[in-house]
Amino acid sequence: MLFIAVFLAVVAIAGGQFPPGPVEDDCMSCICTMESGCNPLDCRMDVGSLSCGYFQIKLPYYQDCGQPRSDLGWKGCSNDLTCAATCVQNYMRRYVGRSGCSPTCQTYAREHNGGPIGCRRSSTLKYWEALKKIPGCGHLV
C-alpha cells in the first residue's frame, strides 16, 4: 500500500499537481505522503484537536492560511488536494520568513508539523527524520 501511495505521489509531482508557492512539488508530495499517504482522510483527533484531509490540517492552521475556498470550509478544503495544498503554500508564505529559518524542505515540513516556529522546536526533528525515510524523500534538505 505504501508503494502505491509513493507511486501516486511521484505521478503528482510529474503532473505538477500542486499549486505554485514556496514549497516545491517534491517537498509538498513528501509532506502529503507523511500526513495521509496523500489521501483525503477523515478528521481524527491529534494532540487535542481535529486534523483533517490530505495534510491533516487543523482549524487554526486553515484560518492562518487565509481560508482558501471558504465555500468548502475547513474540512472540505482539507479533503480537496488543490485547496489543501494552497492552504499549505499560504501558511508557509505567512510564517517561514518570520521564523528565522532558511526556506528549505526541512523548514517547511517542521513548520507544518510544529506551527509558526516549528523549525526551531526540537520536537519536530522526529517528524523530519521520519519524512526523509519515505521512499523518494531522502534527498530533500
UniProtKB/TrEMBL annotation:
One of its GO terms (molecular function) is lysozyme activity. The keyword Metal-binding does not apply. The active site is at E35 (proton donor), D46 (nucleophile). Its EC number is 3.2.1.17. Disulfide bonds join C27-C105, C30-C137, C32-C38, C43-C52, C65-C87, C77-C83, C101-C119. Its main location: secreted. It is found in: Secreted. GO terms for biological process: defense response to bacterium; killing of cells of another organism. GO terms for cellular component: extracellular region. It catalyses: Hydrolysis of (1->4)-beta-linkages between N-acetylmuramic acid and N-acetyl-D-glucosamine residues in a peptidoglycan and between N-acetyl-D-glucosamine residues in chitodextrins. Residues 1-16 form the signal peptide. Keywords: Antibiotic, Antimicrobial, Bacteriolytic enzyme, Disulfide bond, Glycosidase, Hydrolase, Secreted, Signal. InterPro entries: Invert_lysozyme, Lysozyme-like_dom_sf. This is lysozyme. It comes from Sinonovacula constricta (Razor clam).
